[in-house]
Design a protein that fits this description.
- The structure holds 2 protein chains of 2 kinds.
- The N terminus of chain A is likely disordered.
- In chain A, about 40% of the residues are buried.
- By secondary structure, chain A is mostly helical.
- Chain A contains 10 helices and no strands.
- Chain B is built from 13 helices and no strands.
- The chains are: A mainly alpha, B mainly alpha.
- Chains A and B meet through α3, α4, α8 and α10 of A and α1, α6, α7, α11 and α12 of B.
């Protein structure tokens, strides 16, 4: 995104600004990793504790964001929700990326009929409506968190398989691969020790961008009732619980939505910055 | 060219075949015995005995081998018989017809409004890269791609329905009802399209024939509209195809929130009610629609490409 601004006679302030921007993104990335680990420890109240006497309270010292229609502390629910929305989205992306990478490595290095069949499959799955397939699979599996996780993994590995396969096809002809093969390294070693480290950057860029898309799907499906059970402190679910009181108390809907949107924007910007870094790095080589 | 068309057609055929097998499998993979579930649904929730199930299966050919059942089912589907809804007892084909039409109307409106918003913005931005308008467009585009649709829909109805009272909340009865879902669905698409079209046009502007036209003294905007834009048409068509598909995916959320009686809402409610015949029909329609849209885009791009190659 920012690539066309770089290079040509860039002023000192522009360089400083870009460095500052990158530093901010690093801090945000660290926060995103720390949030699900330490966030719940900062929660002032039990996220599940419901009390009819404290329902719909405005923000106060005890309830930083007030309480919801069941008297639960909204702030604590959002902090605990990070362990569901963020962690499960990351798990789905990591699983899809691992499966896709392994398949892509194998197909790209070995080629042959397995490659031919797998790539037709990848093409087929990628032109199909992935969200529709995911919800059908999860419905056949009996709805719920696990069904959703499995079905989302099932439709998302193809992007990684295609990326890795095509990158590996380009890399396999390079000298270091030939050298490793001449020294008698087994194929598995060439794939995992020599090829894999060289495709890390594009993989990371794709994973960051798909993490934001995954959070949107995950929270959206939970909002519709196709994900986690009602009552679970998942961010999309929290918005769904608040929507009936939106008119009298918009806070219940606005706060969790702002949180999701801030994280998605950060992830998209981090992905763009990584892509820029990777591109400028590879052009130097 | 003919071989490329043939390749696309055969690929589409195999995809449709795969979708139909997957759709057929939905009914037979669902939890519980298919025949028993079907009979329970038809007799208002009274579970049949094992004998009744066997008799019904034999009478309706449901004890035949799976490939035979699949072929019979395929013939029925192709002649428009999609079975009966579990939850409503109505013919699925009737429910589906109305819903598909409503969704198509909404999708067409969304795509058209997104294009109407995005094209002028992209042209203006490409004429003056790095201007304030260009930066604003980038910001708008990132925000549009990052906003959760379901949340945006709630905020829009909070503002326009509950506070300003300009628009009706949800439903379908008057043409005004289409405004709010269109606004919500089109914003993100327009942001993405504007950004994409802008970079396409910027690339085209640097081509030799465009520079030559500029050197002959034609105005920047005239060259952009007459030379750069037509050349970018294949890519624009391709991205429009993926965006139509994207819009369709968003319909699951948007139709449900705004109570728009289309495929998205029907699909979500069939999933919630475990109404497998309706779910199957929605899956077949959405999957088939995807394949056909992709095919249409591919074929028109191939035709356009030949045209442009012939011209150069």
């Amino acid at each position: 995104m920012a690539s066309y601004r770089q290079g040509h006679g860039e002023g000192r302030f522009a360089v400083a600004g870009r460095r500052l921007g990158r530093a901010t993104l690093v801090v945000i990335a660290a926060l995103l990793i720390l949030l699900p680990i330490f966030g719940p420890m900062l929660a002032p109240n039990d996220p599940e504790y419901a009390d009819i006497l404290t329902r719909m309270q405005p923000p106060s010292a005890q309830y930083p964001l007030g309480t919801d229609a069941m008297g639960r502390c909204l702030f604590s629910r959002l902090l605990w929700g990070a362990r569901i929305t963020l962690v499960w989205s990351a798990v789905i992306v990591a699983a899809a990326a691992s499966i896709g990478t392994l398949i892509g490595l194998y197909c790209g290095y070995r080629r042959g009929w397995v490659d031919l069949v797998m790539m037709r499959l990848v093409e087929g799955v990628s032109v199909l409506p992935s969200l529709a397939i995911a919800v059908v699979i999860s419905s056949v599996l009996g709805l719920g968190l696990w069904a959703l996780v499995i079905s989302l993994i099932a439709v998302h590995w193809t992007g990684y398989a295609r990326l890795v396969r095509n990158t590996i096809v380009g890399e396999s002809g390079k000298l270091y691969v030939t050298a490793a093969r001449a020294m008698g390294a087994p194929s598995s070693r060439i794939m995992l020790h020599h090829l894999l480290p060289n495709i890390g950057s594009p993989l990371l860029v794709l994973a960051t961008h798909s993490m934001s898309a995954m959070m949107l799907s995950f929270a959206g499906l939970s909002y519709l009732g196709l994900g986690v059970e009602p009552g679970v402190a998942e961010w999309g679910r929290i918005i769904a619980d608040g929507r009936n009181h939106m008119r009298t108390d918009p806070r219940l809907v606005v706060a969790p939505g702002l949180l999701i949107m801030a994280i998605i924007i950060s992830l998209n910007l981090i992905g763009d910055a990584l892509a820029d870094l990777w591109r400028s790095g590879s052009s130097i080589q | 060219m003919l071989s490329s068309l043939f390749h696309r057609l055969s690929a589409a055929f195999f995809l449709l075949l795969a979708i139909s097998i997957a759709g057929f499998a939905i009914l037979h993979l669902m939890p519980g015995d298919y025949v028993a579930v079907l009979m329970t649904a038809q007799s208002d929730g009274i579970p049949p005995s094992a004998l009744e199930v066997a008799a019904y299966a034999a009478a309706n050919g449901l004890d035949a081998p799976m490939p035979v059942q699949y072929l019979r089912w395929l013939v029925a589907v192709l002649t428009g018989d999609l079975g009966q809804s579990f939850s409503q007892g109505r013919q699925v084909a009737t429910m589906l017809g109305a819903a598909a039409w409503n969704s198509a109307t909404l999708t067409a409106t969304v795509v058209a409004s997104a294009l109407v918003l995005a094209l002028p913005a992209a042209i203006a931005a490409a004429l003056r890269p790095n201007s304030i308008l260009d930066r604003a467009l980038m910001l708008f585009s990132v925000a549009g791609m990052s906003i959760p649709t379901f949340w945006y829909a709630l905020l829009a109805s909070l503002l326009f329905v509950l506070h300003l009272r300009w628009l009706p909340s949800s439903g379908f009865s008057t043409p005004i009802h289409i405004i709010l879902p269109t606004l919500v669905a089109a914003t993100g698409i327009a942001g993405f399209l504007a950004r994409y079209l802008r970079s396409l046009l910027l690339e085209e502007i640097q081509r030799p024939h465009v520079l030559a036209a500029r050197a002959q003294g034609y105005s920047a905007i005239g060259v952009l509209l007459r030379h750069a834009l037509p050349n970018a048409l294949p890519q624009i068509l391709t991205v429009m195809g993926t965006q139509i598909i994207h819009v369709f995916e968003g319909m699951l959320v948007i139709e449900t929130i705004f109570n728009w009686p289309g495929m998205g809402r029907l699909f979500v409610s069939s999933l919630m009610n475990r109404d497998f015949p309706v779910m199957q029909a929605c899956f077949l329609t959405i999957g088939g629609g995807y394949v056909l849209i992709n095919l249409a885009v591919d074929v028109s791009v191939t035709l356009l490409d030949r045209h442009s190659k012939g011209a150069v």
